[in-house]
Every structure is written in C-alpha cells, then in structure tokens.
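Appendix B. Chain record.
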Amino acid sequence: MIGNRFRRTVSASRSADSTETRRRLKVHPAIESLEGRQLLSGFTGLSASRNVVVHGSVYNISVTGGGFEAVRAEGRGQFNLSLFGTTSQSTVNVSLSSFRPRLGIAPISFSGIQVRSGELGKINAGGATIDGIVSPLSGLKSFNVGSISGNARLYFSSSPSTFNVGSIDLASGGEIYVQGDLTAPLTVSSLTLNGGNFTIGQDAIGAMNFGSLTLENGGVFSVGRNVTNGITVNGNLSVSPSGGELNVGGNLTGLTVDGVIQGKGTNPKSPDINVGLNLVNLTVQGATPNHGSIYGADIEAGKNITNLLVAHGIFDSFIYAGVEITGGSSSTGSVGPDGADSIVNSQIQAGVEINQMTIGGNVRSTFVTNPNSPGYPTRIIAGEIIDPNMNNEDIWTNGGLIDNFQILGAMYDSVIAASVAPYGGNGSLPDIGYLKPTPAPNPPVGTGYYNAPNGYIEAGTFADPQMLPNYTETNVLNETVAPVTDPSFKSTTTAIDLATKKNIMSYNYNPAYNISIDPNVHDTVMFGAINPSFASAPNTDISLYSSATNSSSSGNTNNTSNANGSQTASTGSSSSSSTQNNTTSTSSFATPVPLPTKSTVVGGVFTTYNNRSPGTDYAGIYAADTRGVFVGTLPSGG
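Structure tokens predicted for this chain:
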C-alpha cells in the first residue's frame, strides 16, 4: 500500500541519518500574536493617546492641548497615569471605545494620577473611578469623573469652574480638599464619607446638590466659612451611630432635604450638623413612619436658625441656636405632624428667642412612663445657652422670649420655658423691674426637673369671673400678673379685690405651684416672657369703676348708656322742651375680662401622674410673664 510504503521510506530515512533528522525537527521559540492585538504589559512609553483593555472593554486615554501621558497597568482594571508637559490648556480625556456585549462594560479606575508639570486644564473622565492619590491640581477649569472612592486623595489649589462627580465614597484616609473658595456648583449623585473628609477651605459659592449624603465612622463634610447658595439633598442626610458631621464655619444659606435627616442618636449632645453662625431656610420634607422628618439628630447653630420648616415632625432630637429660632410657614405648621405627634422626646433650645413657630400636632415626652426612652425630655426653651467656655454646659440667662408660638395639638409631659431653670431656686418671681435676677447655678449634667405649675387666668366677666387653669407659675387677672399671697405656694381660687390691686402688687410674692403633689419647689425664675404678642390690653380703672350719668329732656328725646359710661342720644322733632335730671349708675363688672387673642396650646396640657418616673418634668408653661398664654379653645364673647 502506498501509505505503508511512505511510512517505511520515512522510517528508513530517519534511521539512516537520525542526527540530521533531529536537527531539522528542532523547535525554536517565537512570538505568537493573539487576535491581532498587542497586550498591554508594564510601561507603555510616552504618547498623546493610548487604548487600554479592561475585561473586554476598550478605553481611550488621551491628552489634548499639549502634553504626553504614560500608562502603567496594575491589574484588576486599575491603571496609574502620569502626565508630562501639560499646561492649563491641557485636557485629559477618558472615554469608552468599545465593549463586548456579552461581558458588559467593565469599569476603569486610576490608582494614581501624577501631573509632573503641576498644571492641568480639564479632566473629562465621566466613566472612570479615582481611588488613589492625585497630584495637587493648579489652574483646573473642569473636573468631571464618574466616582471617587477608597483612599483617594485630591488637592485642588484653586476652584474649577465645573465640579461633577457621579459618586463619592471615601474611606478613612481618603480626602478631597479645595484650598480657598469652591466657586463651581458641586453635583454628586451619592456622597458617602466613611471615615473620609471633604473639605472646602473658605466659601462654597456655587449651589451644592447631592443625591444622598451619608456620614459614618467619623467622616466629615466641612466648609471653612459660608455656603452661599445652599445645600440640597434629594434623598436622605444620614449620620450613622459610628459618627460624622456636616460642619459649616460661617453661614449656611439653605439646607433642603427632600428625604429625612437621621442623626447618630447619641446622648449627651454631639452635633451632626454644626453651623458656626446662621442656618437659614432649614427645610426637611420627607418622613420615616413613627420617626418623622428629623430623627435622632443634633443640629446646632452659633447664632440663628431661620425659617425652620419640618414637614413631618421632630423625634428624639436636639435643635439649638445661640440667639434665635424662627419658624417657617406652611399649611401644616412650622413643624408638621407624623400621625398625631409633631415633637417627641426632643429639645428645641435658643439662647434668647423662639419666634413665629406653629406646631401642627402634639408635643410629647415619654420619659415619664419609660425612663430609657431615646432622645431628650421634651422641652422648648428660650434663655438657655451652651457655654463653650464652661465645657459646653448649659447656662440659663435673663430675658428669654417665646413669642407668636402655638401648638395646635396637645402637650403631654412636656415643657415650654423662657428663662426658668429647673433647679437652684424656690420658685419665686424676680423683683419688680427685673433689675437683679437670681442667677441659676450650674447643675451636674442630667439633673433638674420642672415643678408642677398651678397658675390660672381669669376669664368671663368681672361680675362673674372664671378661674381657668393655665398650667403656668403665675396667675393672670385682667391681663396683669396677679400675686399669690399664700406663702405656702397654695393657689387661690377667689378673685383679688381690684380696688386694692395696686397695693398688693407692690409686695413680694411667690408664683403658683401645686405643692400637694410636688412639695419641693426648686425652679429659678428669671425675667422671661411667653407670647406677650398674644396678650390684650387690660381694662383701665376708669373704665372699670366710672359711673354713667344719664340725662333726658322733655320731648322726644331718648337717652341710652353703654357699659363704659359713654352716652348716646337720638332726638326727634318737638315744639317744646323740658329738662329732666334722671341719673342712673351702671357697674362695669359686667364687662368681659380681656383675654389673649390666641391659644398657646389648643389641645390642652396633660401631666401623667400614674406610674410617674421620679425626677421627670411636670407639663407646663414656665415664665415670669405669661399674660399672653391661654390653654384650650378661647371662649367666645369674653
């Protein structure tokens, strides 16, 4: 057979010269191409453009406007980029050229970017991630990357004109620092500082928009001076229990959160949001069921919080302004309800004044029935400051004012107070004129509670007065603070003789407390007022005690007299006249007692007495001047 003969021939030839055969069949190593593409391995040399492959996705990295690049692969889709000879006119572009549909688009990331010249105009890398160190950037006009993550460190010596990042997730050691002002708008779909820092040295002038803002493990977002055009968070602003802080050294003009603000929930106080001067337009619109719009948060401003508008309640939180808190206006109030409750286990505190606030639902504290409740005993207080010179201890001050303030729901086991400390005194009101208020001592942290108030306001008429409980520590008659003459703090239920009122008012007196259930009164009362703008003018002594003399003449003359003694006459035609001296006297005690123009707490004030935890507040409204306070629905007709 031919086949066999061929094999026999080859075999015979190999036998004849085996050495020559081995020499001819010896294999020599050679480079074999793979799919016609050159593999990237190690340093690729300088060029203005380079293609790199990441799991089937091809990216082009190029430098335009002057300069060259060198790319070094580091595995797992990471590259190190070095730039040479770039200027402020140079642009780095990273773009996707192609990808395998069955594999999808593989991400590309940079473990480091070195700008050897120190100058660069633009970075345009919307699909790339930076997770390493970038050389300090000078003269950068535009910064656009897909994400910044891990331990990335970026330093901008000046602000770019545009600053867009898809997402930021910085771990401990990661940092973004902008020296001086950030003039560009800052847009980030998701900002997470997991131990990392984002710092703007001076002012943030452009508007800042975040899809979400999360601070954890001590992560800090910080602006050295002012945020001019506000911060908007489309989702939630969250601080985890591991801690973190949003810190603005000057003014924060606008903080709008479409979701919720959730703090780390720690107690004692530690700021989640800390503003050195004024926080203007704080608006929170979302809600978590049974937790409201602001939950477990500590929000502090050195001066003012203006236009506070919380759609669905404040729960387990502390909100503080060194000077004033002013509420915003909406159909549900400055603080709207979550279900029935608007403020639960929260303290709202201002050093001087709380003004223009409407609470749309109930104000509640649960520490009476559950001493281990989260948050703080519910107190709304003016005239209490945090003193940084005394280890941030709370100091009560003179002249606290809560005005134009209204709770549309009820108040349970909660406190409204203006310059009244829950310790250190005996409940006595300050001297007339308030020239020398009794200073309040500084108690140990966590001590002191408010005593049971027993004040009332007089309603009805002077002839038939009605003493309505007002849950204050003063009694109000004819829109004037009236004395409590009983030195044992027992309140009186009989009307004070109005004819001698001026003499009694000159005496020293004690306010009204219910000593039958709370015998040890220890409140320190300084000069402060609650809702003075709601108070009506008192009736004068002349209008109360003047007699009306009515005269009538012959003919068709009719004389009438009204309650304050003024006289009205209507005269018809008459051919002759005569004078009649008919005199009548009317008592002004039928005149309605003047009342405040609005109720302070429409739904009433309630203290839980059963299963009461010791050392907890009695529900009440505490101030030296509560003439403008009324609890419940205002009666009609005086």
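Further analysis of this model is presented in Appendix C.
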